[in-house]
């Protein structure tokens, strides 16, 4: 099958910026459009979803994702709503959920269906909360209380505060860290804007990771939240 590399730097701006660019929305598809754009437009870290012959893989879903959505997005910067609807129809058949073609869904539900149930990908994240049993997942959804000092936060701040409030740690460095921002859905958005962090420092989020003491500069032995 054809392979179109992800867009980078000036090429990304040239191909993706302007009118009639991106993934065309239709019938509450925004959650899926935003997720697909984030996963594939400018990175190849999840391209195994497009090419790897998974034992449990439904080849029809994989070919629609690759040939009708990802390749056109990377080649021309535009994907028709019809192509996304084609994928949504297949997910409706595979997921025993009739509302994938017309209702707004949670991005995590979409990712779990396509990555776990259809393509059989191993979980991307291993988390531990408060020393309890490890849990595997495909993405991390930011949960936190409204904080008055955060008016226009960046992703680094949100991830750190969310991990702290939930007493979470990453068990290992993830190969891919998919983060769902707290501004989705029609009814409520916690922040009007969120600044993308172009790099994410996860040093303080890693379980048992050696870190520098902020007082003496040696290897730290204690952690204060």
From TrEMBL:
<keyword id="KW-0378">Hydrolase</keyword>
<protein>
    <submittedName>
        <fullName>CYLD hydrolase</fullName>
    </submittedName>
</protein>
<keyword id="KW-0493">Microtubule</keyword>
<dbReference type="GO" id="GO:0016579">
    <property type="term" value="P:protein deubiquitination"/>
</dbReference>
<dbReference type="GO" id="GO:0005819">
    <property type="term" value="C:spindle"/>
</dbReference>
<dbReference type="InterPro" id="IPR018200">
    <property type="entry name" value="USP_CS"/>
</dbReference>
<dbReference type="InterPro" id="IPR038765">
    <property type="entry name" value="Papain-like_cys_pep_sf"/>
</dbReference>
<keyword id="KW-0963">Cytoplasm</keyword>
<dbReference type="Pfam" id="PF00443">
    <property type="entry name" value="UCH"/>
</dbReference>
<feature type="domain" description="Peptidase C19 ubiquitin carboxyl-terminal hydrolase">
    <location>
        <begin position="22"/>
        <end position="202"/>
    </location>
</feature>
<dbReference type="GO" id="GO:0005874">
    <property type="term" value="C:microtubule"/>
</dbReference>
<dbReference type="InterPro" id="IPR001394">
    <property type="entry name" value="Peptidase_C19_UCH"/>
</dbReference>
<dbReference type="GO" id="GO:0004843">
    <property type="term" value="F:cysteine-type deubiquitinase activity"/>
</dbReference>
């Amino acid at each position: 099958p054809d392979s179109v590399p992800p867009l980078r730097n000036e090429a990304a701006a040239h191909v993706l910026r302007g009118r009639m660019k991106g993934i065309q929305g239709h019938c509450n598809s925004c959650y899926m459009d935003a997720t697909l754009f984030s996963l594939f437009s400018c990175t190849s870290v999840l391209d195994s979803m497009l090419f790897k012959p998974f034992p449990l893989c439904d080849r029809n879903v994989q070919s629609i994702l690759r040939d009708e959505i990802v390749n056109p997005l990377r080649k021309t910067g535009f994907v028709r709503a019809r192509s996304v609807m084609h994928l949504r129809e297949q997910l409706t058949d595979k997921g025993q959920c009739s509302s994938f073609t017309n209702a707004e869904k949670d991005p995590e539900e979409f990712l779990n269906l396509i990555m776990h149930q259809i393509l059989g990908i191993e979980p991307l994240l291993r988390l531990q909360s408060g020393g309890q049993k490890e849990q595997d997942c495909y993405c991390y959804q930011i949960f936190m209380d409204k904080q008055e000092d955060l008016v226009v936060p960046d992703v680094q701040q949100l991830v750190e505060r969310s991990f702290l409030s939930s007493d979470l740690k990453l068990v290992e460095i993830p190969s891919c860290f998919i983060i769902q921002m707290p501004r989705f859905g029609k009814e409520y958005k916690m922040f009007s804007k969120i600044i993308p962090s172009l790099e994410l420092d996860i040093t303080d989020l890693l379980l048992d990771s050696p870190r520098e003491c902020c007082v003496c500069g040696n290897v730290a032995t204690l952690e204060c939240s």
